Structures are given as structure tokens and as C-alpha cells.
Amino acid sequence: MSAVKLMTLxxxxxxxxxxxxKLIWIPLVFxxxxxxxxLTNYYMPVIIEKAGNMPEGAVIEMPVPxxxxxxxxxxxxxxxxxxxxxxxxxxxxxxxDRNSGAASLVLVKPVSFLSFILSKWLGMxxxxxGALLIGYAASWYYTxxxxxxxxxxxxxxxxxxYGLWFTFILxxxxxxxxxxxxxxxxxxxxxxxxxxxxxxxxxxxxxxxWSPSSLTGFAYEAVQGGFDASASFGWSIGVTILLIAAxxxxxSALLRRQPALD
Amino acid sequence: xxxxxxxxxLIGILAPVLIIQFILxxxxxxxxxxAEETRGPKVMWVLIILFVNLLGPVAFFLFGRRKV
Lengths: 262, 68
Fold this sequence. Notes:
The complex is a heterodimer of chains A (262) and B (68). With 262 residues, chain A is an all-alpha fold.
């Protein structure tokens, strides 16, 4: 598997993303999500005053959120809507190619299964990390504009941690997309996995510290500054990276078993 | 005087949101009209893209197009 061949395949992924406009609309939607969070936080008192059915003369004191809290809110927005959009956008990554016969066309050439999967994965990753950066930076800028400055280091650390969690889920999308014939099935299995892991770490945070889903919690802590690298932090990063590698290897093995529809 | 200042600030803050939504809508509309076949009636998609803010274009990008 040469790097040149892999790059060619990755370039084909980018071209496909451009032709389907994914390269444009996904970062735009992330930017919009990132801007909306500080905006709604800032105008919440006005919105409640205008739209809520408050009795005459009622006064509600709303504490002004700190910049870090706004950014944490943005991350949790990305974690729900952003993840849903990304999973749905990439649900047909392998199964779509297999059903349409495009996978066979590529795989008859001297291309290894691993580099085919890796090119899909790298194409997803560039879009994911790019869109997340654009959206999160937009949110950072608006937080600075409307609230206060948040330091660069916590911003960057929380970005990387959240990106790692997204990477894990998108690798699961890729794996399920190789395993299952239906694209929707792949998206919902991966999202179900995300929900399950998040719920488990919510119920038993002590025992689930090693799980990839605790990365989101670490990201919230990181952006709010109260972050100390505990043992479970190292574990969760290690386990996540291991699972991502296993997911890629597993997809490649599954593709080898069934490269095309028979 | 004070109110116009406030309004100007609001427009400045909201402009990127409106511009991004507009771009998304245009891309989705062009794609929808150019597409040979959409999942469901084309008119329905045009209406959804035009009238459902943000989610309309996104829904079209995700579900509206038939994979060839």
C-alpha cells in the first residue's frame, strides 16, 4: 500500500464530496450551529420577554453565562445535531459504493482493501475536523463578541477531545456501513452506539471513565478550565484510539469478505 | 439615536447567519432543480427548501437526492 496510491484515492473522496456539495454544506451548517449558540444565549432574556407568556411585571433574573459555558453549550449542540448530520451524511460510505458497483470498479484495480477503507476514513476525517474547527471557531468568535474572551489553550484542547469522540463515532459509521447493506441501518446503529455509551457514562461515570464517551465530559471540563488529567483521562484516550484502529481494521476485513454484491 | 445604534449592531451580528442560510438555500435549490429525479415530488422539495429554515436545505441534502 503506497502513500501515492492512497492519496489518489483520498483525492477521489474529496472530489466526490465536492460534487455532492458535502464539502460546502456541512461546514456551513456547523458554522451556523456554532453561531446560533452564543446568539440565543445572548438574546435569551429578550426572547423570553417577547415570546414567553410572562405575567405583567414579572421579573426574571437570568445569570449571564460565562464564555466557557457558552462554548460548552456549543459543543453539546455539535454533539447532538452535528453528530446526527455527519452520521447521516456518511451512512452510505461503503454500502452505497458497494450497491452501486463503484466499489467493484475501484477494487479490480491493484488497490488493497485497507487503502480503500483508509481513503474513505481519511476523507471523512478531513471533513469532520475541518467542519468542527470552522463551527467551533465561529462560536469562539461570537462568544468573544457578545460575552468574554476564552483562552486559546482550553479552546484547542476541548476541540481536540471532542474531535476524537466524533472520530470514534464516524469510524463506527464506517464499520457498520461495511457490515450492513442498508445505509440507514448503519447510521442508526452508530448513533445508537453513541447514545448507549453516553447514557452509560451518565449513569455510572466512575466505572465508565475509560469509555470514549467520557471524552465529551473531559472536553466540557477542559473548556471551563477546571481540568486535571486523571488516570481515566489517559485510559479513555488510549481506548478510543485503539477502538478507532480496530474499527478501521475490522472494516477492511469485512470488505475483504464481501467486496461486492454477488 | 440609541435605538438605531442598537439596531445596527443587531444587523451586524445577524448578517452572517442570514448569509449562510441564504447560501445553503441557493445551493439546495440549484441542486434540486438540476436533479433528474428527487426522492418524492420536486415541487415538495422546493417548498421545503424555501420555507423550512436551515433544516429544509439540510433535509434535502441528506434525503432528497437519489443516489445514481
